[in-house]
Design brief:
mainly alpha, 71% helix
Length: 138
């Protein structure tokens, strides 16, 4: 009994830390989504979106996918934030804000599919031995 009790404060601290990390991720996602929504509104007219709710759903989908707030989770968050902020990626932003791409789907997309068309083309381009650009066939 004493051994179990001794672990309780450490466990409580770990849970508090986990919850604080998840809340901070929600806040960062909400800010990025709000900024993306402002851009989408300027480009396509007014949009209606509950950014805080969308951020919470996105974070929940990320947490379900990863099961913890480890390095892979945090890297995934950074990738989503980057792609939401990418000025060359208006289609992704619009689809997320308009609800065409629900959080459970866009957190499951491979990084390559989150990217803008420009970044996809750059990724496909490789430099051959002579310095000439060639299309990657793999």
């Amino acid at each position: 009994v004493d051994g179990a009790m001794a672990g309780t404060p450490a466990r409580a601290t770990a849970v508090q830390s986990l919850l604080a990390t998840r809340q901070e991720i929600c806040n960062r996602l909400a800010r990025a989504l709000r900024a993306a929504g402002e851009v989408v509104s300027k480009e396509n007219g007014a949009v209606s979106c509950d950014y805080q709710r969308l951020a919470k759903l996105t974070e929940k989908a990320l947490f379900v996918r990863h099961g913890t707030c480890d390095a892979a989770y945090k890297s995934h968050v950074r990738s989503l934030l980057f792609n939401l902020k990418d000025a060359q990626n208006p289609d992704f932003r619009r689809r997320v804000i308009a609800g065409e791409l629900p959080p459970s789907e866009f957190v499951s997309l491979p990084v390559a599919e989150l990217s803008s068309d420009t970044k996809k083309r750059q990724r496909d381009d490789v430099v051959d031995g002579d310095g000439k650009r060639a299309r990657n066939k793999t």
